[in-house]
Design brief:
Elements (H helix, E strand, L loop, with lengths): L12 H14 L5 E2 L11 H13 L11 H15 L8 E4 L1 H13 L5 E6 L3 H9 L3 E6 L10 H4 L6 E5 L11 H13 L3 E5 L22 E5 L12 E4 L5 H11 L5 H10 L3 H25 L12 E5 L7 H12 L1 E2 L1 E2 L11 E5 L4 H18 L1
Parallel strand pairs: 1-10, 3-4, 3-5, 5-6, 6-7
Antiparallel strand pairs: 2-8, 7-8, 9-12, 11-12
């Protein structure tokens, strides 16, 4: 059988790095993981307990396509608690992770051949999912002066049917303030384009709170997940918030594409929403790790970094050290025993000169990784 052209997407390089790190560990080496963008902490204890109890009393069969009503209502309340937004639970759609949310949103909002503007550097699966769906990602090179975020001027003269932003962003951790996000929403809506906001790292912030696009307009699509702040990556449960006019469209797609998100994961997610003490303890670890990274990465020679307002990443310009970030990351793994992610995942144009460091692990592991990086750079000269 022949392969489809839609399936000809690029590999997710960080997954290749993870496999190389796994192989090194299988050979007996101790690897420090700064490559993977997932918490090392488990799902909150309350979430695990709620699922254990549900497994004893329920069959955990299909839910309705849009998700458990109690979970949708509780997510809506989260927007009131965090942002002061009065959100109708009917607009909340529970999805199989944020990845399932991207597929639903792109399917509901765009026809084949339409163009979606994205800032680079950015999460690589945006462009790969768009390509697989016969949509055209329009990647726009952002600047350090604009904190590696899109600004309306970047969109001038560009033909696009949708705009997608992320704040806090992966890989940079930079955020859009209310004026900046409002300007982008206005620019998109001014030409009748859809606006999508990836808010998966909300809750992981340090000096100031992130802004949701729902504070600006109801005519936006917001993607979020329980993976990051709620420490539930492998549970594969996320959500969309869609405009009222798109609810039935998304429901029909969800019915046919996924039937529903995992019932078990939804049960756990509902309980995770009421575990603030454990989640804030995780955030305190990230904050400590961030401070260590900002202090000690420059001491090791990685001193050209994007301002990490949120998430748990440091994105470093290493173009003065290498023009092959993939080979450089392999060298760091081999010689220092630290797994880091080449920037090519996030920016095909400039990524050969960048690396992403994740600080989502425990503090002791981050400290050891920083020690190894310093020694590596000293011996490298």
């Amino acid at each position: 059988m022949r392969n489809s052209s839609r399936g000809a997407v690029d590999p997710f390089i960080v997954m290749d790095v993870m496999e190389a790190a796994r192989a090194a560990e299988a050979s007996g080496r101790h690897i420090i993981h700064m490559e993977v963008g997932q918490p090392s902490s488990p799902a909150p204890a309350a979430a695990r307990q709620a699922l254990a109890e549900a497994m004893e009393r329920e069959s955990l069969g299909y839910t309705v396509a849009l998700g458990l009503p109690a979970l949708r209502a509780r997510i809506a309340r989260l927007y009131a608690d965090w942002y002061g937004v009065d959100l109708d639970p009917a607009r909340v759609v529970v999805t199989p992770g944020s990845s399932g949310g991207f597929i639903l949103a792109f399917s509901a909002l765009f026809d084949a051949g339409q163009r979606v503007a994205l800032g680079a550097p950015g999460y690589p699966s945006y462009r790969q999912i768009l390509k697989a769906m016969d949509l055209t990602p329009v990647e726009i090179q952002t600047t350090a002066a604009n904190r590696y975020q899109l600004v309306p001027e970047d969109l001038a003269g560009i033909d696009y049917d949708g705009v997608m932003v992320a704040s806090p962003a992966n890989p940079t951790g930079t955020m859009l303030g209310l004026p900046e996000l409002s300007a982008l929403v206005g620019a998109a809506q001014g030409r009748g384009a859809a606006f999508l906001s990836d808010e998966i790292y909300h809750g992981i912030d340090y000096d100031h709170k992130p802004v949701t696009a729902l504070q600006i307009s109801d005519d936006v699509c917001v993607i979020n997940s329980f993976s990051k702040y709620f420490s539930m990556t492998g549970w594969r449960v996320g959500w969309l918030v869609v405009p009222e006019a798109q609810i039935r469209q998304v429901e029909r797609l969800a019915q046919n594409l996924f039937i529903c998100a995992s019932n078990a994961s939804q049960v756990a997610a509902l309980a995770a929403l009421d575990a603030p003490e454990e989640l804030n303890a995780n955030l305190a670890v990230y904050a400590r790790n961030r401070a260590l990274m900002l202090e000690r990465l420059p001491q090791a020679g990685f001193d050209r970094i994007a301002p990490p307002d949120g998430a748990f990443y440091i994105y470093a310009d290493v173009s003065h050290l290498t023009q092959d970030s993939r080979a450089f990351a392999a060298e760091i793994l081999e010689q220092a025993g630290v797994a880091v992610t080449p920037g090519l995942d996030f920016d095909p144009v400039r990524g050969a000169g960048t690396l992403r460091f994740s600080y989502a692990r425990g503090t002791a592991e981050i400290e050891e990784g920083l020690d190894r990086l310093r020694r590596f750079m000293e011996t490298r000269g």
